[in-house]
Amino acid sequence: MTAPRVRIAPSPTGPLHIGTARTALFNYLFARHTGGTFILRLEDTDQARSSIAYEKDILDGLHQLGLRWDEGPEVAGDASRGAFAPYRQMERLPIYAAAAERLLAADAAYPCFCTPEMLEADRKAQEAAKLPPKYVGRCATLTLEERAERQAEGRRPALRFRVGTGVVAFDDIVRGRVEIDVSNLGGDFVIVRSDGSPLYHFTVVVDDAAMEISHVIRGEDHLSNTPKHILLFRALGHPEPQFAHLPLILNPDRTKMSKRKSQTAMADYLAEGFIREALVNYLALLGWATGTEEEVLSIEEIVERFELTDVHKGGAVFDRERLEWLNGQWIRRLEPDDLVDRLRPFLEADLAAGRIGWLPTDGELTSLLPVVTERLPRLGAIADLVGFLWVRELDYDPALLVPKRWDGATTREGLIAARSTIADTGAVSFEADQFEPPLRALAEGRGWKVGDLFMAIRVAVTGRTATPPLFDTLVALGFERVLDRLDRAIAILDGATTAR
RNA sequence: GCCGCAUUCGUCUAGAGGCCCAGGACACCGCCCUCUCAAGGCGGAGAUCACCGGUUCGAAUCCGGUAUGCGGUACCA
Asked: Nearest nucleotide (C1') to the CA of residue A123?
């Protein structure tokens, strides 16, 4: 058998959608697993809704996920690559026109002069009679003379495809045999608008035929449309590809995942710091499983194990919690240098947004990693975790300073004692294991719980109650800043007592 | 309305006639570890396998029906 050729065919009418990314991924996995070719084609015939900005978002998003296509357009107008160029439908208009001409010549299609008003009236009547909406076929039997007459009146016809009669059946790779009676297709459907622009059902088939697509892998929402495509393939005299309809990704209420009810833009997930390894891993597991208990898998491992026949039939609810868990798994698996590189853009964004006052060096960041990675659910959470390291002044609620079991006076006393202990030991060298024994001894000597003392210090130097381990934090801050922040906390407590 | 597709713990799933009074993971709860938060370890709770009927010695797995859900039904993609 010849190598498969598959494609992802997004339309740039919105940002890269999670569902589109998943479909792209499954096509990619299938292509790589079988040694086939993965093609990207832009379906931009809906000029009213398409935009170059969306196109860029989609291509960038796919690139960021690591889904490289073998044939297709490059970002924003750059050169295409592949033997079947162009890969933007708006640049393929002559091809559709020629195909339409052939169908017309063969009388597989005919011009339709019905006006939107007439069609609307038909629909109303059918609705009233409780009949399924369907084109009545008014123009199906027009003679050549009648067509010419209407043309002469200046009416611009749309082109309709004759669906004929019978049953269309196909063997879907994930769903098995599907049979649909042509009478349920809604009658002869329009393939070219009256303004001459081709419609989706038509372009998709012309292109899949022209690009020699062997397997059409797409969302289940296209299942009911497949007979139309098959009819078109036949009329065009082209062998039908195999079809595989993937289950839908769902909102929590089990409807098709939508912008209204879920976060659907891939760019938003990327911006939050979900990394491609996790995103790919998670998306692959929506509707597919290895059949073993393996779950944390690299894209290479997934490629190796992927089979279309193992894909599920039922829809899958998108579960952000599980994605976050996988993201944590993958963040912890990254090499330190890699993690530092990937953290950079997030820190730059934090700086730009004023969440931090300056950027750490690579060395600083690297030394922080051991205590940071296991606390990082998303790269974007970095400032939230240790942003206190890169700000001049801490801004916190003074009430946080006082541990639950302590009062203000005890806290003040504790911080003063801790300050001098740290000043004494830190003057020699500033290392984590230097402080723990003396500070523990301090707590013990005063009859304090170490947790309380440590918590007071923690809040004083970080402004937060949840941080990486205290001593690593102190070292990261440095001798001077630790003392400064302790002094400032003591001053705050002084102020509080004097005020009272 | 009509057509199509689907249905295993809250969620993602394993399961292809006996290994299943259903396994794993996320989330949840508890314990351990512990200076907080995580991470990790251990344990717990959680599914009469949508329902009804049939086939079979035996069904989550096969067949039929029902219900529910979703998708499609455009001169959108």
From this structure: B74
Asked whether residue A421, judged by its CB, lies under 7 Å from any atom of the DNA or RNA strand B, the reply is no
3-state secondary structure (DSSP) of residue A94: helix
Cβ of A337 near strand B (under 7 Å)? The reply is: no
pTM across the whole model:
0.94
Give the amino acid at A383. A
Strand B within 7 A of A175 CB: yes
Strand B within 7 A of A448 CB: no
CB A198 within 8 A of CB A100: yes
Residues of A marked active site are found at 259
Contact predicate A459/A396, CB 8 Å: yes
Q: Please answer whether residues A88 and A44 qualify as being in contact, where contact means their C-beta atoms are separated by less than 8 angstroms.
A: yes
Q: Which residue has the tokens 């002869």?
A: A188
Condensed to tens digits (0 to 9), the pLDDT of residues A443-487 reads: 999 999 999 999 999 999 999 999 999 999 999 999 999 999 999
Whole-number average pLDDT of chain A: 93
CA→C1' distance for A408 and B34 (Å): 26
**Cα A128 from chain centroid?**
43
Residues A436-450: tens digit of each pLDDT: 899 999 999 999 999
Please give the distance of CA A418 from its chain centroid, rounded to a whole number. Answer: 48
The pair of structure tokens assigned to A32 is 């790589």
Instruction: Give the whole-number percent of chain A exceeding pLDDT 70.
Output: 97
d(CA A174, CA A485): 62
CA of A366, C1' of B77: distance in angstroms: 46
State the ipTM, two decimals. Answer: 0.94
What does DSSP say about strands A176-181 and A167-172: parallel, antiparallel, or unpaired? Answer: antiparallel
**Is residue A66 over pLDDT 90?**
yes
Q: Is pLDDT at A231 greater than 60 in this prediction?
A: yes
Q: CA A144, A145, A150, A154 torsion: positive or negative?
A: positive
- The distance (Å) linking the CA of A335 with the C1' of B8 is 39
Distance (Å) of CA A14 to CA A19, A199, A408: 12, 18, 55
